[in-house]
Amino acid sequence: MRSVPVRARVYILCVALAGVACAAPAPGTRPSWPAVAFLVVLYAGCEQLTRCRLVGRRIPRGFGTFFPVLLAGVFLLPPSAAALVAVPGALLGRVDRHPRWVRRIWRASQLALAAWASARVFVALGGPAATSGPDFPYVLGPAGAAVLAFSAVLTVLDGGVLVTAERIPVRTAWRGLFARSLAPVTVHGLAGLMMAVLWTSPYGPTSALLVLLPMGVSCWAFAQYHRERAAHQATIRALVQAVDLKDKYTRGHSERVGRASVLIARELGMDAERVEVLRFAGILHDVGKLGVPTRLLRKDGPLTPEERRIIELHPEYGHEMVRGIGFLGEARAAILHHHERIDGSGYPYGLTGPQIPECARVVAVADAFDAMTSTRSYRRARPVEVAVAELNRCAGAQFDPEMVGALARALDRHGWHPEVTADVPDQGVPVPCPALPAPAAARPAAR
């Protein structure tokens, strides 16, 4: 508990007490305890699947999180009994991070409150009668409202944890949480409704288990997707760490360029898949430096023309390194062309204007922005306002004005909080912005 802030402990305790209160049977209600026990054991069993091994490998975490079972309880049981379904499974489920018991109590309380609120909405709208009666299609309305309530309670409680435990600002803690949770909860809600309808049919509770088979397969496939995604992330992380070890002056630069590229992509309204590709492009834009001699990357004085030509090969080196990594998509073009300029004076191919891929134009602006706002051993960081003004001055010649404008708007909205990553203390020697040509005697080595 020492790692949990005091206000987070108080918040979790309040949620836990509310969960206990919701699980207390209301006067006059007589739940079917065999049904409660069956659903409790079923959900707990689904949670315990995450502890098992399948063909020598641990089953992914997502395989055991069966909201259909919880929502079937919402549609079949009184609110207090529905709140009980998740508790044993959540308390006994696998938790990978400390403090484990705090996280288990939090999860059990959160799910109990969500199930209770969802069941209350379902009962208030007459859902139980429509589930087993001749007016079955009308149950979709109460069920939909119950799913919305379930997702809304999860969202509210999750945002509270972000504020109290993670110290996320209140104005941003809940942003996007509801939208991200609604789609999967809706799908699970439909499966839970199918379980409830089959449960009350002449075929009985056993038939309701048939719904879990396709849901289990889909959860397993989704978990495989996330495992593959984690492998992609590990590949990228290894490449970036190799670059950072070789070029100490730009340590952390790749991650920040990825972050700035995401800001631009989102401001331009790109879909989530392209935003992710732009993040990969920003992170890997300098991976070709692995093919450049270390002595040139770490040279403190001005580069000779021959040395500069060698360093300017790094986009082509990078493209060759990643050309076989299929999941990068158009990020490979950004790696190759992020040093092209709108006026055609860039490298490696001297492309102009729209000839330069859009993703490369995004990364070029993000790269220059971070280069100007980062503190390195040979010069101090420029303020964000000065860097944006410099980008605007170069827009139309070196940078795409649309990308510059998108970054400026995103910075106004979200701000920028870079980390100082230089290994050597700042010497306080200002140099020309690396985005612009500088006299040979004053120009730092191209990083």
Walk me through this protein's architecture.
- Helix 1 (6-23) packs antiparallel against helix 8 (140-164) and helix 8 crosses helix 10 (177-200).
- The protein has 2 domains: 6-226, no CATH class; 247-414, Hypothetical protein af1432 (Orthogonal Bundle).
- The chain is an all-alpha fold.
- Residues 53-64 and 420-447 have low confidence and may be disordered.
- The protein has helices at 6-23, 33-48, 67-76, 79-84, 87-92, 100-124, 127-132, 140-164, 170-173, 177-200, 205-208, 212-246, 253-267, 272-284, 294-297, 305-311, 314-322, 331-337, 358-373, 384-394, 401-414, and strands at 53-54, 57-58.
- It is built from 21 helices and 2 strands.
Number of DSSP strand runs: 2
Strand order, sheet with most strands: 1-2
- What is the overall shape? elongated
H/E series = HHEEHHHHHHHHHHHHHHHHHHH
Largest sheet: 2 strands, antiparallel
**Count of alpha and pi helical runs:** 21
Model regions low in confidence, pLDDT < 50 over at least 5 residues: 53-64, 420-447
Percent of residues in helices comes to 55-70%
Question: Any idea what the radius of gyration is?
Answer: 28 Å
> What is the number of independent domains?
2
* Helix-strand makeup class: mainly alpha
Task: Work out the strand percent.
Answer: under 5%
Q: What integer is the average pLDDT? A: 80
The protein's oligomeric status is single chain
Head-to-tail CA distance between termini:
44 Å
Protein name: HD-GYP domain-containing protein
EC number: 3.1.4.-
GO molecular function, one term: hydrolase activity
Transmembrane segments: 66-91, 111-131, 143-165, 177-199, 205-223
